[in-house]
Design goal:
Number of helices: 8
Shape: globular
Order of helices and strands: HEEEEEHEEEEEEHEHEHEEHEHEHEE
Helix content: 10-25%
CATH topology of the largest domain: Metallo-beta-lactamase, Chain A
CATH class of the largest domain: Alpha Beta
Number of strands: 19
CATH superfamily of the largest domain: Ribonuclease Z/Hydroxyacylglutathione hydrolase-like
Strand order of the largest sheet: 7-8-9-10-11-17-18
Largest sheet: 7 strands, mixed
Radius of gyration: 20 Å
């Protein structure tokens, strides 16, 4: 339970201590230590400890296994407004995949939007991002650079590559940078007519999503024995067999930032990282936000672009507090 005294408070500022905290309220994001209710925007977030109360969409709660992890989920569908003490809150689509969201907080005719990442182009799977006016944007995402290509265009090349490898009698191995990237890769390959095997976290996420979203591809869990046919989907942070696969002539595509085999894969499926810098500036302008609180470390180029666009920027990636800028 959230203490009544906490619920009845007005926002007094923005704090950052391992995550954002709207001071004077129970709301926070990331792993903010002083927040009683943590907003989870997408499946790539670091999840809090067991027993923590989280604010999340029902689809995303299922995808991350919130119940199995012992998280106390307050699950809200998009656009469902609820009253939290003196605050009105709702979740809006973020365009990063199934159940991903932005958090809008309204009070005294003012609005704050918490955004952990947004994709303005149409996603492969899930709802398109919504852009609603606000007074302050709390942005905790890393801009992509260079600008990623169209996800739909890249997905066609991904399928083409997989089919070519399978035709040559090889097992394609896709190493994804994040759970969100793995979901989109699996969705793109749903009609590739090839068995899909996944490491345990991806297998469990796809299995949970299959109960929520029609058309999620069926897959098998990848066990110790390497398959002689089909394709394999792995997470990069859990990948321990790339050398082993290379020795057996398995073509490996790294789908995500910083990896480029084949060449088109390095900028594909960049979930959790937001748009490119100009795209994020465009997003801020569409929101009409005159102030932005940034939780990303060391991106001076993005800060300069925002300031050039006459947006006041607060860098809060160090443990600190700043007043609300209105």
């Amino acid at each position: 339970m959230i203490p009544r005294k906490t619920l009845d408070g007005w926002p007094r500022g923005i704090g950052f201590d391992n995550g954002f905290h709207l001071i004077g309220t129970p709301l926070g994001s990331g792993l903010a230590r002083k927040a009683a209710l943590l907003f989870i925007p997408h499946q790539n977030c670091s999840l809090p400890r067991r027993g923590t109360r989280i604010l999340i969409t029902p689809v995303l709660a299922a995808a991350i296994g919130a119940k199995e992890r012992g998280l106390d989920a307050l699950a809200l569908g998009y656009d469902r407004r609820i009253r939290l003490g003196r605050l009105d809150i709702r979740l809006l689509p973020a365009g990063l995949g199934p159940g991903t969201s932005q958090l809008e907080v309204s009070f005294k005719n003012r609005k704050i939007v918490f955004c952990g990442g947004v994709r303005l182009s149409r996603p492969l799977i899930g709802s398109a991002a919504r852009v609603e006016p606000c007074d302050l944007l709390v942005l905790d995402t890393e801009p992509a650079e260079p600008k990623p290509p169209s996800t739909r265009r890249v997905s066609a090349k991904l399928v083409e590559w997989v089919v070519a490898m399978r035709t040559g009698g090889q097992v394609p191995v896709l190493v994804c940078a994040s759970p969100g990237a793995a979901v989109e890769a699996a969705w793109a390959l749903r009609d590739a007519e090839s068995e899909l095997r996944c490491c345990r976290p991806v297998f469990e996420m796809l299995r949970r999503l299959s109960h929520q979203i029609q058309g999620i591809p069926l897959c098998r869990r990848l066990e110790q024995q390497w398959p002689s046919q089909g394709m394999v989907l792995h997470l990069v942070r859990l990948w321990t067999g790339s050398r082993w696969a290379g020795e057996r002539d398995h073509p490996t595509a790294y789908v995500g930032p910083g990896r480029s085999t084949p060449p088109w894969a390095d900028a594909a499926f960049r979930l959790g990282e937001g748009e490119d810098r100009p795209g994020l500036v465009s997003y801020v302008k569409q929101l009409g936000a005159r102030q932005v609180a940034l939780g990303m470390p060391g991106d001076g180029a993005f800060t300069k672009l925002l300031e050039k666009a006459d947006v006041r920027v607060f860098q809060v990636h160090q443990p600190t507090q700043v007043p609300l800028p209105f």
